[in-house]
Amino acid sequence: MKPLISIVMATYNGEKFLRPQLDSLLAQDYPSLEFVCVDDASSDQTWAILQAYQAKDARFQLRQQASNQGYMATFEKGILAAKGDLIALSDQDDVWVPNKISKLQEALGMASLVYSDSELIDADGKKMGQKMSEIKKQIGYKTPLMYTFGAWAPGHNMLFKREILVTAFPFSNFVTHDYLLGFAATCHQGINYLPIPLVHYRQHESNAIGADLKKSKKKYQSRQERNARICERMKILAERCPNPKEARIFQQLYRHFSGSSLLDRIQRFALVFSHRNNMLAYKGKSAFGNFVYPFKLLFGIY
User: Which structural domain, as residue segments, surrounds residue 277?
Assistant: First the structure.
């Protein structure tokens, strides 16, 4: 028998695109599924649509927030209600290919999480001729250190084991839920990547988190604000990492990224230089680029 997989969907005013996504969930060829849908106090017909699907298929489990809590709190509530040992997250506006779940379950293996490529579609459902792998570097992650300077394992195309929730929960408003889930997976048995598009990832003006086709950079009020956010993220990683060796490295990074003395600069340079191939894996730099990058930390935070 195949293990039960819980598909958790967070919805909010999603009536425009919701039905095609729900239909694609029902079309999955994986034989053992439940659908946990949590609505974040929608004011349109989203809740009525969910109730109509539940009336037709008993696998739908519905929850509704009393007031709007945001998508991360809504996903967290849905994950807590899930019964499966394997969990997949669903946006309300994408369309999944019929074998998405079965392909991910096969590719998961001994890893704690697996994610796939996805293909972009526009608001009308037309293919845009672009895959996420052409926009973001998509790789497997085998150590928490690979999450130091950024990573990409998006929630809309991941499947993960329940075991990682002990590290990922509670979600934080400071970093995204899929970032924490991915980081938690690297603290257990790592992340596999399946280079096959299994999601039609819809791009429209109301995306909570889109593909960032314009590759916009985060804007901060000041360099101090940017540095403070970097340090806060380092603190989160240090506090969450259950592996003593990596946790100690994150603690040292937090301490030396928080300071501005020459000694702090030298220490953070030395730490990153020693672990540069893992810490900089997502950036996709050459060996020379990995060698040069830590020297920037002698003069400021990246």
Answer: 223-298
